[in-house]
């Protein structure tokens, strides 16, 4: 399996654009997969610099309905005329951050025939699954970080039921890819216990080092190696790296890993 970061908050390369968002290009089980599209079309510009042809992507996954993961969908549709985009049913519901700012997807995209709308887990191909996290799977409370959505006309706390995870399995090795882990990275790690977990931990607003240290120790209790990025935040990453050592590394824009 090959995984290349097309968009992430940081980069070590001057020829790439880094923005708050996430986009990963994946080659696995004979398929070329785009996981998220970042906040705009810059992920596609980075792909060209990295020698990745987005027209060859045969399936795409939207991890959840926030602009920093799906803002580049229009550009992807321009670069690729055939790959379906798998989304959860409530991805296009209105989503707002803790300050009330709209952070959802472009409503004009809703109903596009390229979207394959799911309401539960699904196997896309052998070894390629999309998974969700139910309430019964949550051993720690889901922290909304003040985020809200509109349900039945009322503004309510977001349950993040629009979030899904990509599970890749080959030769007994399980690789789980998450966008922001809004349902809780500790819940996700406990539920799936993959060999490798890649994605944001959503700790960028956590100021209490004690919380980060405890989370790091909890993550170490699972048989998993972690590659984090995006909404984990650089400061949180530094604190957790101090606890987790080589079990935790960072996947910046332009980085590539083979698993």
N-end to C-end Cα span: 5 Å
Task: Note poorly predicted spans.
Answer: none
Overall mean pLDDT stands at: 97
Strand order of the largest sheet: 7-5-4-3-2-1-17
Sheet with the most strands, sense and barrel status: 7 strands, mixed
Q: Please provide the ordered H/E string of secondary-structure elements.
A: EEEHEHHEEEEEEEEEHEHEHEE
Query: How many beta-strand segments?
Result: 17
Envelope shape: globular
List keywords for this structure.
259 residues; 19% helix; globular; seven-stranded mixed β-sheet; 17 strands; single chain; alpha/beta; 6 helices
Question: What's the gist of this structure?
Answer:
The chain is an alpha/beta fold and 259 residues long. The chain has helices spanning 42-49, 67-70, 73-79, 185-192, 209-220, 234-244; strands at residues 2-7, 23-28, 31-35, 59-61, 85-88, 95-96, 115-118, 122-125, 128-131, 148-151, 154-157, 165-170, 173-177, 196-199, 225-228, 248-250, 256-258.
Report on the architecture of this protein:
The model has no long low-confidence stretch (mean pLDDT 97). Helix 5 packs across helix 6 (234-244). The protein is globular and about 45 Å long. The protein has 259 residues and is of the alpha/beta class. It has helices at residues 42-49, 67-70, 73-79, 185-192, 209-220, 234-244; strands spanning 2-7, 23-28, 31-35, 59-61, 85-88, 95-96, 115-118, 122-125, 128-131, 148-151, 154-157, 165-170, 173-177, 196-199, 225-228, 248-250, 256-258. The N and C termini lie close together (5 Å). The chain has a seven-stranded mixed β-sheet with strand order 7-5-4-3-2-1-17. It is built from six helices and 17 strands. 19% of the residues lie in helices and 27% in strands.
């Amino acid at each position: 399996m090959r995984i290349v970061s097309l968009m992430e908050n940081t980069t070590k390369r001057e020829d790439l654009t880094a923005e708050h968002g996430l986009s990963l290009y994946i080659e696995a089980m004979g398929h070329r997969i785009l996981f998220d599209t970042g906040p705009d079309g810059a992920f596609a510009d980075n792909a060209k610099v990295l020698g990745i042809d987005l027209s060859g992507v045969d399936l795409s996954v939207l991890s959840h309905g926030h602009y920093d993961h799906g803002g580049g969908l229009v550009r992807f549709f321009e670069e690729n005329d055939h790959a379906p985009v798998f989304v959860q049913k409530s991805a296009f519901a209105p989503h707002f951050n803790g300050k009330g700012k709209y952070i959802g997807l472009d409503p004009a995209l809703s109903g596009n025939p390229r979207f394959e709308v799911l309401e539960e887990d699904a196997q896309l191909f052998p070894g390629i699954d999309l998974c969700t996290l139910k309430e019964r799977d949550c051993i720690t409370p889901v922290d909304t970080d003040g985020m809200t959505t509109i349900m039945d006309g009322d503004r309510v706390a977001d349950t993040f039921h629009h979030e899904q995870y990509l599970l890749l399995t080959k030769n007994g090795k399980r690789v789980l890819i998450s966008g922001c882990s809004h349902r809780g990275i500790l819940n996700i790690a406990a539920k799936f216990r993959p060999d490798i977990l890649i994605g944001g931990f959503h700790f960028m607003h956590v100021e209490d080092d004690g919380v980060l240290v405890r989370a790091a120790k909890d993550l170490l209790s699972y048989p998993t190696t972690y590659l984090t990025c995006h909404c984990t935040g650089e400061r949180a990453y530094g604190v957790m790296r101090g606890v987790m050592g080589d079990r935790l590394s960072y996947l910046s824009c332009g980085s590539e890993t083979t698993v």
